[in-house]
Amino acid sequence: MMRCALIDIGSNTSKVLIAELDESGNRKVLAQSSLPCRLLSLNKDQEPGICELATARLIDCINHFKELMKAHAVSRVRAVGTEAMRRAENATRIIEEIRQRTGLNIEILNGEQEAQAVADGLLTDGALQRLDSFIALDLGGGSMELIKIRQRNAVSALSLPIGAVALAASIEQDPQLPIGAKSVESLKFRVLDILRERAHALPRAEGPLVGCGGTLVFLRRLIEMKNSRTDAEITLTGVIHFLEMTASLGLGQRIEKFPDLPPDRADVFPYGLIALSSTMQFLGRDSLTHSYHNLRHGLIFQQPLG
Questions:
Q1: What pLDDT, in 10s, does the model give residues 14-51?
Q2: Which helix (H) or strand (E) element contains residue 155?
Q3: d(Cα 140, Cα 271) in Å, to the nearest integer?
């Protein structure tokens, strides 16, 4: 029996998944934890690196995860970084500092590796076993991964710089203020331009749309509270509804009206919905199925593990 942990260092949050693999190949999730740890700045003019404060937060997160792993007697651990680490000019120095202070080696995934891991993770979700072919979407802070899956195999994958934090940082906007309609439309056009340039073949792909990522987790939570029922289906109408509601409010009002949105999520949440609604429209899908399975599920039992 083997107990493994996968630490996922994202642009907005850092997460750990702890799972067990027995002699028969059966997998069991033992614990999960997600902590706010924004590595990308919303300041458009800031140098494209990870600052000392963000590094300190990340080290605190890793130490918290190490305590959790110790409590579950984890024997093997893998830590990966995604878009924030890919973009940071000082990533090499940050990785070395983390290694010295925590003993953890961080591997930076390229966009294709990240997208493939998302596909592998979604395919472990029992609720999706009936689906053979579909388009997968993972909406993170720094990037969005789009993967075409045919007969339960990933046949193409894209990583696009249209994550929630990346979009928020791309415009001159005081995060305390409402997002004006003009800014929303401008960002929608920007997302659509990127999709037309790099994902032009995807609208013709067969199958439904399946999605994961932090924006979708909190969107689903808001929809379920509104409808008083559990439902993995998220409609384009619902996405646009919450986009219009959250974008029209300043940050303080947004947090007050939607207390389930933590401050580190509330400031970029509408931007995630801009990326999501534009992508759904581009793909010609009026709904998607949300999954809690993700990159971590796809990587946890893969090599290399330390």
A1: 999 999 988 877 889 999 999 999 997 776 556 668 99
A2: strand 153-160
A3: 11
